[in-house]
Design brief:
This protein is mostly helical. 76% of the residues lie in helices and 0% in strands. It contains eight helices and no strands.
Amino acid sequence: MDLKALYFLNSLTGKSVCLDSVFIFLASYSQYLLGVAFLLFLFFSGYKNKEKIKIFAVTVGSIIISRVFIVELIRLFYHRPRPFLVYNLNQLIPETGYSFPSGHATVFFAASAAIFCYDKRLGILFFIISLLMNISRVIVGVHYLSDIIGGLVLGSLVAFSIYRLVEKKK
């Protein structure tokens, strides 16, 4: 199933320069928009400064624990090569390192889940943009769909767990 999804999604490339540009933008640059959107949310939200610091700490803590510690621990023992190294694909962006779980997916789904805990509507919007970003990473040939699902599960579980721990201390 993973291979069928990879081939189907990657087959969307190479048909239009405009469409390929959209996939490249989503896969490589939408992450910056999400980062700026998160900072704008913190700055303009109606939360008190103490609550803003807590939201920032839960979000950044979730990202650091899931990406820097858990993803790297998994990759220490499980070496899944990127799909473009194994199969004949249209690779639209450069990428190095192992592919499972996706670091991008882990980071942005951890952030989305943390934001969701404090602001449901914005959290859903972050989840949607994160999903588009990470599906685009499959389309451009640098990930398998299971890499994205692994990152989604990992990042979300860590964020929801940290949120529960922080809010339980209240």
